[in-house]
Design goal:
By secondary structure, the protein is of the alpha+beta class. It has one domain. A hairpin with a 4-residue loop joins strand 2 and strand 3. The mean pLDDT is 77.
């Protein structure tokens, strides 16, 4: 694997790479064919001997969302805005 800057990959891609390196994690997408992947929703990984189904969710932020989140966080912490 080529050494690259982590900023070239999204947090979701880095997290999937991390999970893929664990001994007790199985990528469901890697187990299914393209035809099977086309049918509906499913979890992303199976963990702990297939006792845990893990679904990865990510938040896509629009313009101004980061500012609004920081403003809200500052309000909660009592910090100046």
């Amino acid at each position: 694997m080529r050494a690259t800057s982590s900023s070239q990959f999204s947090l979701e891609e880095r997290f999937k790479t991390f999970l893929g390196q664990l001994d007790n994690a199985e990528s469901i997408d890697d187990m299914l064919s393209e035809v099977e992947l086309a049918f509906g929703r499913r979890a992303d990984f199976l963990l702990d001997g297939r006792h845990i189904a893990l679904e990865i969710k990510s938040l896509c932020l629009g313009e101004g969302a980061e500012r609004a989140i920081l403003k809200s966080a500052c309000h909660v912490r009592g910090a100046p805005r």
